[in-house]
Amino acid sequence: MYKKLTITLFAAIISLPVLASDDVTEARALIKQFGSTLKGQLVGAMKEGGPVKALKFCNVRAPGIASDTAASSGWEVGRTSLKIRSKENAPDAWELGVLEQFESKKASGADPAKLDFSEVVESNGKKIFRYMKAIPTEKACLKCHAAKVSPEVEAELKELYPDDKARGFKEGDIRGAFSLSKPL
Ligand code: HEC
């Protein structure tokens, strides 16, 4: 009896971190899938019709790709930022805290490509696993997220996103983050 209890307790203790890391592994795999679909289609649209076509693509398809990834996995999947383009991507309080934490880690020398954070939070009495991974700004992103963009892109952005805040980025900046969550 004593032995069985000890084994049960031991199993419960060691299974906790294992469970958490399974969720992180799953979240990272989803980000890979979501990120590469987004990037693949963005590059395709760029090649086909330049940045204006790609911009329209992002406007229409980026939220859809996020919800497709979510629907097939049971997770909520999205992107957010301290400087958002689409209001739909505005951070909630938890995301805001994590984004600020990423910025301060980067300021003390951390590589943005390696910044991530996970936590189990409670919402309405339910436990939710939440995970965020920073998205570094690459050269290809500057066509639509730099301070200076082509006049055509500028005009299109004005029309689609009159309140656009997602400008002024440089290579290596944290553009934003993937944000995923799953009820436990
Ligand atoms: C062709 C123009 C274009 C390029 C190039 C581009 N983006 Fe965007 N980006 C957009 C548009 C449009 C949105 C808003 C999409 C939406 O409604 O979700 C957006 C939104 C985002 C968001 C979501 C947060 C927000 O501001 O709404 C992130 C994060 C992001 N882009 C990162 C990147 C990164 C990283 C790159 C380079 C790998 C990149 N973008 C390249 C046009 C572009």
Describe this protein with a few key phrases.
single chain; Beta-Lactamase; 184 residues; 18% strand; 4 helices; 4 strands; globular; alpha+beta; four-stranded antiparallel β-sheet; binds heme C
Description:
There is one protein chain. This protein has 184 residues and is α+β, with helices and mostly antiparallel strands. It has a single domain (2-183), classed as 2-Layer Sandwich (Beta-Lactamase), CATH 3.30.450. The protein has four helices and four strands. It has helices spanning 2-71, 93-107, 142-145, 151-160, and strands at residues 76-80, 116-123, 126-136, 174-183. Strands 1-4-3-2 form a four-stranded antiparallel β-sheet. The mean pLDDT is 90. The chain binds heme C. Residues 51, 54-55, 58-59, 62-63, 79-81, 84-86, 88-89, 135, 137-138, 140-141, 143-145, 166, 175-176 line the site of heme C. This is DUF3365 domain-containing protein. Residues 1-20 form the signal peptide. InterPro entries: Tll0287-like_dom. Keywords: Signal. Residues 46-183 form the Tll0287-like domain.
